[in-house]
Amino acid sequence: MLLLERRPVDSSLMRWASPVLALVLTVMTGFVLFLAMGKDPVEGLTFFFITPISDLIGLAELGLKMAPLLLCAAGLTVCYRAKVWNIGAEGHFLMGALGASAVAVQLMDMSGFWVLPVVLVAGILAGMLWAAIAAGLKTHLHCNEILTTIMLNYIALNLLLYAVHGPLKDPYGFGFPQSVMFAESALLPDLIPGTRLHLGLAFGLLAAVSVWVLFARSFIGFQLNVVGQDQRAAAFAGFGARRLTWFAFLVGGATAGLAGASEVTGPIGQLVPQVSPGYGYTAIIVVFLGRMHALGIIAASALLALTFIGGEMLQIAMNMPKAVTGLFQGLLLFYLLTCDAFIHYRVRLRAPVRKPTRVAAPAATQEA
Amino acid sequence: MELLTNILAAMVVAGTPLLLVALGELICERSGVLNLGQEGMMLMGAVAGFVVALTTGSLAVAVFASVFAGIGMALLFALMAVTLAANQYAAGLALTIFGTGLSAFVGAGFVGESIDGFERVAIPLLSDIPVIGRVLFHQDLLVYFSLVVFAGIWLFLHHSRGGLLLRAVGEDPDAANANGLKVLVVRYLAVAFGGGMAGLAGAYLSLAYTPMWTENMTAGRGWIALALVVFATWRPERVLIGAWLFGAASILHLVLQGLGWRASTELLAMLPYVVTILMLVLLSWNPARTRLNTPLSLGQPYRPGR
Amino acid sequence: MTAALRLKLENIVKEYPGCRANDGIDLTVGAGEIHALLGENGAGKSTLMKVIYGVVQPDEGRMIWNGHPVTVDSPARAREMGIGMVFQHFSLFETLTVAENIALGLPADEARDRRKLDQRIREVSGRYGMALDPRRYVSTLSVGERQRVEIVRCLIQESTLLILDEPTSVLTPQEVTALFATLRQLSSEGCSILFISHKLEEVRSLCHNATVLRQGKVSGDCRPGEVSAADIARLMVGDDTPISTQVSAAQTGDVLLDVRNLGCKSRAPFGTSLTDVNFQLRQGEIVGIAGVAGNGQDELLKALSGEIRADWGEIELDGVRMNALSPGQRRKLGVAIVPEERLGRGAVPGMSLAENALLTASGQDLVGRGMIRFGRVRSFSREVIRRFGVRCIGEDSTAASLSGGNLQKYIIGREALQNPRMLVASHPTWGVDVGSAVAIHEALVALRDEGASILLVSEDLDELFQLCSRIGALCQGRLSPLARTAELSIEQLGEWMAGGFGSAEATHAAA
C-alpha cells in the first residue's frame, strides 16, 4: 500500500529540487504532446527552449521579457510572503502602462532628462493607486483580495481599451486603437546597443535585490513573514496586519506599475491594447517557481520569459498554435505544486500485514 | 412590458452559466474546499463541448463531453488539493492557468467555426403565463436543467443525510473523521460535482449562449461565480437570485445601448466587474454576517491520521 | 482469559518519526470496570486511546475484544464493536443541532426517523441525569452540556466501553460530581469505562484500577483507592523529578493594574463577551483566574494585551490609561503576555527560537534603523535558553521541534528576561511535563518576588491554590469577586465558576 506520511522535518532538498523536477516533467509532457501531434519532439523542444536564445539578439529578447516578469514577481513575492493573495499584478501593470502613457502623451513636446522619470513615476503611482483600492477593500471592508484584484484586472483592461479607443487615441493613427509614439525624451535607454534590451531589466534586478534585503535583513520583512506564517502570532506580537497588508499591496502595485511603464516607454514606445501578453498572471508562476526567493525568481523569470519567445518561435517555425505558451506555463505550475507536496510528505511503501516482531531484514523477503 | 419581458428573459439566459457554476462551487465549498479553478474548468468544458458538437453533430454528446472535461479538471485539482494537501489557493490558480492554456491550445483550430446551438423550447401551458411564461418557460433545455439542479441542491442540503454529511465535513473535518465519516471521499465527490457543473456552465456558453469558441470566452464568469457564492453566504436560494442579478448586470450595457444611451462600450463592459466588487463590499463590510454561514474549514487542507 | 474481560491489549507499539509513543503496552479492562489510564503529558495516553479507537494503527501488538482478537482500522469500526469515545476537544459540529450531531454517528436507517431519535435522546439523557434538548444547536450549549452530548451519543450507539479523555478538565467541581454519579451508574450496569486523567484525587475516588504510563511504557498498575496520591505521582514522573514547588509568602506592594467596568464584545464566531469586569493587581502578587474554558479567558487576555480594544471601561497600568494602546505600546510600558497556545500564537512553529525572540523582544535593542541585529537576537535567545534550562539543540532549532514544556519555558523566559512589570499567563502548565511545570512555577514566583504583578489564568485549581494570593473565577464573561486564597473553599470557587455570584458583589470586592 502506498502511504503518504508527514515528514518529521520538511525536506529542504525537495524545496529546491521540486522546481527542477517540475521542469523535467513539463518537458517530458511536451515531448509526448509533440509526438501525439505528429511533430518531431526533439525539433519542437529545440525550437522552444534552445533556438530562441542561441544568439545575442535572442538573449536580449529574453532579457526584454524577463524585465516585466521580474518586476511583477518581486512585488508579488512581498505579497505572498505575507499571504496577501494579490492576483492583481496584471491590473497594476496595465494601469502603470496607462498612467505612464497618459503623462507621456501630455509631455510630447518636452525634452530634458526629467521627462522619463516623471513618466515612470506616473506609472508607479498608477499601479499603487490600483493596488490601494484592493488594499482598502481588504483592510477596511473585509473583501477577499483574490476576487477584488481579479475584478480590478478586468476593469483595468477595459479602462485601457477605453483610453486607446478614446482620449489617448492617436488622431492620425488610421483608426487603430493606439496612442501616438512617445517623444524620445520619454523613452528608456537601451542597455545593449543594437538590441531592444532596455533599462527595465536593471529595474527588475534591482527589485529582486531589494526583496532579498527586505526579507533577509529588515524587521518589516520579518513581520511580513510572521503575518504570512502565523496570523495569530502576528496579532499577539502586535504586528499590525492592516499596515503590513497595505505595505505589501503598495509594493506590489509600485513594481508592477513600473513594469507597465517600462513596457510602454521601452520596446513599444506607445500605448497599445495588447501591451501585456499576461505578464501579471505569469508572474504568479514565477513567484511560486522561484520559491519566493530573490535568486529563485530571477531564474524562474528567465525560464518563463523563454516560454513566451519559445511559443512565438514554435508558431513561426512549426505552425503550432501560440497557446503552447499558456499550456507550458500551466503544466509547469501544476507539476510544481504536485512536487511541492513532497516537501512536507514522503511516500512510504507499507505492507498490508504487520508482523508483531521487529527484524532488521527487509520486510519484503519475509512476506515472500 | 414587451421590452421588460425581453430584458428579464435575457437576464435569465445571461445568469444561467453563473448559476450553474456557482451551484457547483457552493457544494464544493460546503465540503471545505475552495476551488479557484472555476475559470479553467469552465473553459475546458466550453471547448470540449464545442469541439465534440462540431465533430459529432450531437449536442447531447457535447454536453456530456463538457461535463466530463470539467470533472477531469476537478479531479486534477482534487489530486493536488485533497490528496496531496496542497495550498488550495495555489492549486486553484494553477488549475485556472492550466485550463486557460490547455483550452486555447485544444481550441486553436476551431476558432471561427460555428454550430447550431440549443434552441428554445416552450413548455406547454406554463409558457403562456404572462411575463413569467416568457422569462422562465420559453428557454432552452439547459436553463430548465439549471432550475432542476437548483431544486435538487436545495433539497439535498436541507433535507438529506448526504447534505448533513457534507456540512459536517466542511465545518470540522477532524470531528467528522472521529465520527467515522470519510472526509476525503466526501471532498472528492464535492470537488468532482463542482467540476461537472463548471463544465456544464462552459457548455452553456459555447453551445447555447454564443454557439462558438473563442479563447477566454468565459471572460471572468468563473471568478464572478466565486464572488457570488460568498455574496450568497453559501445558500442556494441566494445563489439563484444573485446569478440572475449578475446576469442583469452583464446585459445592462446592451439594454442601455438599446435605449439609445451613448456611452463607450469599453466603459459599459466594466459593469459586471464593478457590480461584483460592489456586491462584495455590500456583503463583506460586516464580517460577522459572512462568518455565520462560512464553512469553517474552508480552504484548509485535511490529512487524516495523527 | 475470563468472559468478563472486555478489552485486552498486548504489547502495543506505535512509533512516530522520531518518537516511540507506545512501547509495548499491556492493558486489561473488565466488564463494568472503571479503569484509569494515568500518565504525564507525552507519556503515550492519547496515542494509546487513538489506537483503541482506531484513529491510528499500531505498528505491533494485539487487541482482544470480548475474547476475540480484532483489528480496529477506523473509528467507524470501533463504534460498531461498541467502543465509544469522548474527546477532550469535542468532536461536535457547532452549526448542527444535538440530534443532527447524534444522527451523523448512527447508521442511516436508525437516523432516518428524526422524531424517534429525539425521543431516544430524551430517554437516554433523562435516565442518566444528563438533561438535553435534541433540537438545540450545539453552538448554544455550555461545555458541560456538550460533554453530555458526546456521552449520550456513545450510549445511543450502545457502547460497552466508554473512553473519556480528561473529561473533568472542562468542568466545575459540581459538574464533576454529577458526571461521576453518571459514570458509576453506567459501571453498575456493566459498561466499562477507560478514564484518562492526570488528576490523582479524582482517580482515587472514582476508579477501580489504574494503569500508569511513563515515556511510552507501563510503569505500574495499582488500585488507586488503596495507595496514596504521592505514590501514583511517583509512578508517573519517576524518581528524579521534583513533584511540586515550595511557594513562599508574597510581599504585596502598591496597586499596579486597575481594571474598571471592562467590557468587550467577542470578535470570534462563538466567543464570549466580557461584561463589567473589575479587579486590581498589586505589585509582587500572583492573582488567579479560575473558570471553565470559553468563559471569556481568551477575551480578557486579549483585552489586556491590546489585541482587541475594550468597548467599555478602563484599563490603567500605574495610572496610565492603556485602553487605546497597541500591543507594542503596552509592551513598552512593561506588559508581558504568555498566551494559552504556545505554538501558533506564543511562537511561530516554523521559525527558529532566535526569530521567535524577535516576536516580542524587538524592543530590547534587537532592531536598529529597521534592520535586525542578528548578533544580539542570538545572544538574547541563548540567554533565555541558558537561564531557563530550555532543552534544545540551540537557538536555531525551530519552535515546533521543542516539547511543549521546553517551548513554554522558552516563552516565559523570553518575557521574564524583559523585566516586565506585569505578566499575564494563560494556562502556562497545560500539557506540560511535571519537571517543566515546576520550573515554570518557580520562574513565575521569582518574577513575583522581583516585584512584578502576575495574573494567572488557569483551569488547574491545584495550581491556582498553590501559587496565588487571591483567586476569582470567570463565568460567561463576568468576573467573580477575588478572595484571599487562605479564606476560599473549593466549593465556593466551584459555585463562582458556575456563575453563582451577584454582579453587584463583584464590583465591591474588587479590591
UniProtKB/TrEMBL annotation, chain A:
This is Simple sugar transport system permease protein. Pfam families: BPD_transp_2. The keyword Amino-acid biosynthesis does not apply. It is a multi-pass membrane protein. Its main location: membrane. The chain crosses the membrane at residues 20-37, 57-79, 91-108, 114-134, 146-164, 197-215, 244-261, 281-311, 323-345. The keyword DNA repair does not apply. One of its GO terms (cellular component) is plasma membrane. It is found in: Cell inner membrane. Keywords: Cell membrane, Membrane, Sugar transport, Transmembrane, Transmembrane helix, Transport. GO terms for molecular function: transmembrane transporter activity. It comes from the Bacteria. CDD domains: TM_PBP1_transp_TpRbsC_like.
Automatic annotation (TrEMBL), chain B:
One of its GO terms (cellular component) is plasma membrane. InterPro entries: ABC_transp_permease. It is a multi-pass membrane protein. The keyword Transmembrane helix applies. Its main location: membrane. The keyword Cell membrane applies. It is found in: Cell inner membrane. GO terms for molecular function: transmembrane transporter activity. The chain crosses the membrane at residues 6-28, 40-61, 67-86, 93-115, 135-157, 185-205, 217-234, 241-261, 267-285. Keywords: Cell membrane, Membrane, Sugar transport, Transmembrane, Transmembrane helix, Transport. Pfam families: BPD_transp_2 (PF02653). This is Simple sugar transport system permease protein. It comes from Marinobacter segnicrescens.
From TrEMBL, chain C:
It is a peripheral membrane protein. One of its GO terms (cellular component) is plasma membrane. GO terms for molecular function: ATP binding; ATP hydrolysis activity. PROSITE patterns: ABC_TRANSPORTER_1, ABC_TRANSPORTER_2. InterPro entries: AAA+_ATPase (IPR003593), ABC_carbohydrate_import_ATPase (IPR050107), ABC_transporter-like_ATP-bd (IPR003439), ABC_transporter-like_CS (IPR017871), P-loop_NTPase (IPR027417). Its main location: membrane. It is found in: Cell membrane. Signal peptide: none annotated. Keywords: ATP-binding, Cell membrane, Membrane, Nucleotide-binding, Repeat, Sugar transport, Translocase, Transport. The keyword Lipid biosynthesis does not apply. The keyword ATP-binding applies. Residues 7-240, 257-501 form the ABC transporter domain. This is Simple sugar transport system ATP-binding protein. It comes from Marinobacter segnicrescens. The lineage of its organism: Bacteria, Pseudomonadati, Pseudomonadota, Gammaproteobacteria, Pseudomonadales.
